[in-house]
User: Which sequence fits this backbone?
């Protein structure tokens, strides 16, 4: 028997571990007196994340957005950058903050990632890079994108905010492209309250990124670039170290929830699930469903209906980035250029998924979806 739900179920909830477990980390910080500027916990987290993620170099940041802005600076990207309108607005904002013009290219309706077959037609003499997003942690078409970039001499940056530890054929997808950017925001699979990181393949680029996130300082008296303050503090790093001891269990629990949803929500008319290729080891960061016209309710009716039962889903990503006022005027923002993105943004609903969500809660959510 399914109980009536009286508590709020949000789309996500940060995994906090226990305060008792966090206290020793805090004590260490208080005793050392080093609370930021590349302290010991920051260094330890960079080292441990490199090992865990299977990447060469990582530079921690105060959040994913500043990491994106800095990644573009690190590679000296200018002019036009090809990207997706189907993402969190920070993806395109990072371009505008660098004075770069976003050129929106439509998505593949099955993966909801930028359609690599449509990239070439959007390249102009001003194009300098491709900024892909591994939406919901589902990898972009990595090989195709790199092939296009090689032909046209473009840089590739991946907004991997959703893709913590996602693997393809066992290898981290964070090793693809010139740089990948992670978010460790409270709503993410791995969180440091606020935080982010840039993954880079070589030491020289890591050094430039480290300078850029510290105002451009290379030593006490030398500033080599107009850098920003993008550093992660010791408290955030400490929380990351604690989270890392639990991350496999947290992802395993997400997997269990994903499986329950899939078993209960497959074969419902008008409700489409996003499937991963068998090559992918996902991180189960989101559980997106697309509500089509054969479903008994519209997407927005279902969204409102679930709210009545304290189930707060999210329409990630509606509206499209290209529909916000600062992007609307670009010719690539025209809905006729973005039919699949427009369609997905009108159908998408992200269901609650987080480790503390109980099986009963998942059953309750599925029952409410299936009603009518
Ligand atoms: N690129 C992509 C593709 C991204 O998705 C994001 C961020 C970025 C770049 C930028 O990375 P950061 O600069 O953020 O590191 C959220 C997050 O703020 C944002 O990080 C995330 N993507 C985006 C997809 O979602 P909101 O406005 O939907 O979050 P909010 O506050 O409504 O939280 C959602 C639910 O989570 C709440 O209803 C309750 C729960 N929650 C949230 C917070 C913050 C908690 O239980 N506790 C909390 O502390 O944007």
Assistant:
């Amino acid at each position: 028997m399914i109980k009536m739900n009286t508590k709020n179920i949000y789309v996500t909830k940060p995994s906090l571990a226990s305060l008792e477990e966090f206290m020793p980390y805090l004590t260490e910080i208080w005793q050392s007196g080093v609370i930021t500027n590349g302290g010991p916990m920051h260094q330890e987290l960079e080292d441990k994340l490199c090992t865990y993620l299977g990447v060469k170099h990582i530079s921690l940041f105060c959040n994913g957005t500043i990491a994106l802005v800095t990644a573009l600076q690190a590679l000296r990207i200018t002019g036009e950058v090809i990207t997706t309108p189907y993402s969190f607005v920070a993806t395109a904002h990072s371009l505008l903050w660098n004075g770069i013009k976003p050129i929106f290219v439509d998505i593949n309706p099955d993966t909801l990632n930028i359609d690599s077959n449509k990239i070439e037609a959007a390249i102009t003499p001003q194009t300098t890079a491709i900024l892909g997003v591994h939406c919901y942690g589902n990898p972009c078409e990595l090989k195709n994108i790199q092939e296009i970039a090689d032909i046209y001499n473009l840089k590739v940056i991946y907004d991997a905010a959703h893709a913590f530890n996602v693997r393809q054929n066992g290898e981290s997808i964070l090793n693809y492209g010139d740089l990948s950017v992670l978010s460790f925001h409270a709503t993410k699979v791995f969180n440091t309250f606020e935080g982010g990181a840039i993954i880079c393949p070589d030491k020289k680029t890591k050094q430039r990124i480290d300078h850029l996130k510290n105002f451009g300082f290379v030593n006490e008296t030398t500033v080599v670039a107009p850098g920003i303050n993008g550093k992660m503090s010791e408290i955030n790093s400490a929380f990351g170290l604690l989270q890392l001891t639990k991350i496999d269990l947290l992802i395993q629990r997400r997997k269990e929830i994903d499986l329950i949803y899939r078993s209960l929500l497959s074969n419902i008319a008008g409700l489409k699930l996003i499937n991963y290729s068998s090559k992918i080891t996902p991180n189960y960061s989101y559980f997106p469903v697309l509500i089509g016209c054969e479903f008994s309710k519209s997407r927005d009716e279902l969204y409102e209906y679930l709210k009545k039962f304290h189930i707060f889903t999210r329409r990630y990503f509606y509206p499209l980035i290209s529909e916000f006022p600062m992007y609307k005027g670009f010719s690539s923002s025209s809905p006729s250029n973005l039919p699949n993105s427009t369609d997905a943004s009108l159908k998408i609903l992200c269901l609650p998924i987080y480790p503390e969500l109980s099986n009963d809660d998942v059953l309750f959510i599925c029952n409410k979806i299936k009603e009518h």
